[in-house]
Amino acid sequence: MEKYLLRLLDIFEWFFRSVKIDYEQLRAIVSAKLTMDNRRQLVGYRKRGKKEPRNTFGTTLFFYALFGGFVAFAMYNIPSFILSMIVFFTYIMVMVSMTLITDFSSILLDTSDNTIILPRPVDSRTLFAARLTHILLYLGQLALGLSIIPAIVVIIEYGVLLFLFFLIAVGLSILTSVVLTNALYLIIMHFANEEKLKSIINYFQIIMAIFIMAGYQILPRMIERIDVGSFVFKIQWWSFLLPPVWMAGTMEAFQFRIFDPAHVGLNACALLFPLFGMYAANKYLSPVFNKKIATLGGSSSQIEKNKVENDRMLSSISKWITNSPAERGTFDVIYKILGRDRKIKLKIYPSFGYIAVFGLIFMLRSQEDIATTWANLPNTQYHLVLLYLTFMVLQVALYEIPYSDDFKASWIYFSAPLNRPGEILTGTLKAIGVRLFFPSYIIISTFVLFVWGFQVIDDIVIGLFNNLLMLMVLAWVNKRHLPLSMAPDVKAQSGNLVRSILTFLLIAALGLSHFLLTVLTQKSVLMLTVIPIQALALYLTFRTYKKTTWDQVTL
Amino acid sequence: MDSTASVIITRNLSKSFDKPVLHNINLDIKAGEIIGYIGPNGAGKSTTIKILTGIIPDYEGDATLLGFDIRKDIMEVKKRIGYIPENAALYETLTPLEYLHFIGQLYKMERNHVEKKVKDLLNLFDLSNYSESRMTTFSKGMRQKVLLIAGMIHNPSILFLDEPLSGLDANAVILVKEILTQLKRSGKTIFYSSHLMDVVEKISDRIMIINKGELIANGTFEELNSQAKGSLEKIFTDLTGNKEHESTAGQFINILES
Question: Which domain range does residue A446 map to?
């Protein structure tokens, strides 16, 4: 792939030379960067155990082509030409911008170029051009993946001429997204320091992960559901604020030969904004941007006075909920790290979004329209699904908590005079419960109470205990690892089939028993008998788990 | 060039980020000198080196390297100097061969020439077995060796090193020290910053101490010794105004035992 891209680049050698850029150096830099891209660990698709990603790009391209396929399917099903185009261009612009923010933030904010390339005889124009070329090549491949199937649809439906305009519009969309994203970066950097910027990017990455999953799950379903046949899109004043509409309007203008003022206006926006935007970015923004970047890595001596507020609530919770110093210490630390460590957040927090996505999918599953579905909701048993979906957070958190980039810091567990590591394990479980599970369970319960009414309160209580019991099952059956003690790239809990089956059966049994009880028995009786049993089971399992010895821990 | 001419000259070199970092630094360094540049953390050592190597382009004052004003002719300067950064900054997903080849391209060195040189150098540093594996798994010492090659592959006449010895094992430290002394013998000028006082004391022709952005001492070890008696460590703590180490240590023990 890199070879072809470099050959493609060679075609433009004359262009670079004509603007007095050192082509040999540019080619060397772009080539090195492409090689590195291809070996980069991808956010989101990371697999454990596979240490050295080889063809990261191929994998991504495949996924994007798949998504492009969904979009093409949607386009095919939307009778309104302009609307189908709006869908496509919105999609491509959002994906390009999100990729710029999530995948490229690390490259944009990377200061190693400063120390590696700047001391060499490379002038700043060449370096800037190399960076820009690299980004555009990357995004170009991405756009290729995304638009390959939609482009086929365009050729079949509307012919080759429109296909050419389509390609140009895709190119302009990339430029527009680059300009807008750069502007966004500058605005954020103006108001936030480096740490805050990294946190904001972190949240974008989390949203991106949810977005990709949601697109994968919801798009195909939505296409069947929503009746778009009767929808007519009219160009309004606000259309001029939405870049995808510029592109779609341009396509419409050329397809149907409509050149009224509104369409010509959209054409002008589509063409002029990216070109002038790039010019302005090159001339005015990039110096500011580079200066900001240069100060990022700045001098290591300026340690930021990044004071963390003392969390009163945390200290009263941890005092109340834990009952030994080691357990309390672990609880406090894990609680705080779950809220601060960006890598851990990136792995765990998307599951909150998944809960919402799956919840929506379940609730809106029926074939009726949304209003009827909503009105019928209290008659269904879907509230149980919602209550148990929360378990996803617990499962993901428990799976991820043994891993950390700072795994070496776990020496403290071994050098400290700890008799039983069980206290560390229970402290961790409690922190996961308090920080991640309870807040989401409370939100979901509130929603369930709002829709289904007070009569399902017993389900909420039983569901709560069951979720915690399932967590205990998971913790119990699987290998016990100390929190944050393993390198993220070591092979994960190696597929012990018996373990997974056992876990699955136990968890399924717990969930199913709740469902059967709800359907078959009188609820009041249920309340009185089941809940104490659950509480006792939870207490006993937890107490035994706390007695975990060093022999039972897998290091 | 006349061997007594200064190859690095700065006049009132100053730099401030949010607060002043360097203040009126005046250097005159002759060809073939080894300069040990020492100072506490945050004193401005790295900033000085980054300005002289063209990494930080905006500063006040003037600096001339090998007769070129670095504000006007930074490209000419960069062709003739080498820089070895601290904290092992390199593209770690590349292999040493790929990385060094890339660096060679930036200096427009001929491909075959670079390849031969790189292979010989890696071999010399016992890295030839790893020349085609990614540097992600390399130890600090292995990375430092790659950086040494990357900084010198174009045979520069002035070499800047930022903490070149940190993280190296004892054998590698001896090797680097030996390389530096032999480079000096072949007429190269070496400007390096370090924390390791005993090394600085032994191999430097001249020692410069910087504190809070100002040059507070500049001379041979003997000259410094006449200002404040003792080892370089002693002189250093005397001059940088940290005289309370002993009492701090005493208090530390007291608090532990309380």
Answer: 313-552
